[in-house]
Amino acid sequence: MTIFEDVESEVRSYCRNWPVVFDTAKGAELWDVDGKRYLDFFAGAGALNYGHNPEPLKQKLLEYLSRDGITHGLDMYTTAKGEFLNTFRDKILGPRKLNYKVQFPGPTGANAVESALKLARKITGKEAMVNFTNAFHGMTLGALSVTGNSMKRGGAGVPLVHSTPMPFDNYFDGKVPDFLWFERVLTDSGSSLNDPAAVIVETVQGEGGINPARIEWLQGLADLCKRHDILLIVDDVQMGVGRTGPFFSFEAAGIEPDIVTISKSISGYGLPMALVLIKPEHDVWGPGEHNGTFRGHNPAFVTGTEAIHRYWSDDTLEREVIRKGEKVEEAFNKIVADTTVTELTAKGRGLARGLQFTEHDQAGKVCAAAFERGLLMETSGPDSEVMKILAPLTITDDELDEGLEIVAESVKTVTS
Ligand code: PMP
């Protein structure tokens, strides 16, 4: 099969990096139509935390479909939805002593963010938001309003939400005390930041370049929000569902956001699904105040339920993610030590890892060199200066080693 580009919009992007037609995939491997194998350090931009077609989830899905289980259920009570909600309460929220109601905002991460922003405005009766430099929250007009990337915002015209960007952790390389500017602007009558409804934050900025906020910075932010009566929204669309180790990325900081957005890997099978978690006292929407045709995809409930049973009944996966993350960190540190490029920085948390280049285009060239060797990776950061890996959390050690070897060779090829 040849590449089919005559009918699809020019906006497509990933295919430009990987100009082959993919056909099948299992675990951390994909195959193209010519039978060439690729290792996947991309994992659907974080939507495939358990890899492609994980067998136990596939079996549940096949069973469900073969008994004509409901696929499209809108808001109806269905067995699949009930099992998902009960399992999420009993296995995810309960053991963590978290008290949230679950809302289904629509199928995507942007739907979840949009819902969170709307809800924060309804809860507080206030309009303004605070976001962070380099944040990424989605492509719809509201989500784009709290996104910090000027290229992405450039596609939109006028954002819908009034939002003020504040410096993310380490923005000033430690030269300015944490939250100095934020607090000043909040309390200074001469500023434009007027009584915001909410702050939206990622604990590790994914699209922004794999920038982990320090745990104490996240705690400071939660404290600031409490003192100034601002709702805290954690966008866990990319870093949730175990990407950094724990199920929720904010667990490490011991904070309890008012609202949490989840999507990408929550179905465990790459099926579209999103959740918004809301403190019970903030569950203020009446019936029908937020609806949508594809809220609650029943096959995704089935795989999502099985994923929780399979991977989150104990802390095995969390420990594995930390261990594999350390392995990647070690490999990246060695690349940094060995390279002739002076300013190469390794960063990340858990299995969200990045290598930041200073020279224009080098991260992209490394990804291209890796593709030639059969490894899929993408870039992130405002200038695509970070080579990013989001390998499936379930990747085997052999596959991880193989991929890291290709990364090292590719960096060497591009920088020497
Ligand atoms: N929030 C974060 C943190 C994300 O990384 C993304 C997607 N990369 C989104 C929201 C938007 O999700 P979606 O692409 O499913 O709309």
Strand residues, percent = 15-25%
- Fraction of residues in H or I helices: 25-40%
- Biggest β-sheet: strands ordered side by side in the sheet: 4-12-11-10-7-5-6
Q: Largest sheet, described in full? A: 7 strands, mixed
Q: Low-confidence stretches at least 5 residues in length (pLDDT < 50)?
A: none
SSE sequence, one letter per element? HEEEHHHEHEHHEHEEEHEEEHHEEHEEEH
Short précis:
The protein is α/β, with parallel strands linked by helices.
Structure characterization notes:
This protein is an alpha/beta fold and 416 residues long. It contains 13 helices and 17 strands. It has a seven-stranded mixed beta sheet with strand order 4-12-11-10-7-5-6, with helices on both faces. A four-stranded mixed beta sheet has the order 1-2-3-15. A four-stranded antiparallel beta sheet has the order 13-14-17-16. A hairpin with a 5-residue loop joins strand 16 (378-380) and strand 17 (386-389). Helix 3 runs antiparallel to helix 10 and helix 11 packs parallel to helix 13 (397-415). The protein is globular. The mean pLDDT is 94.
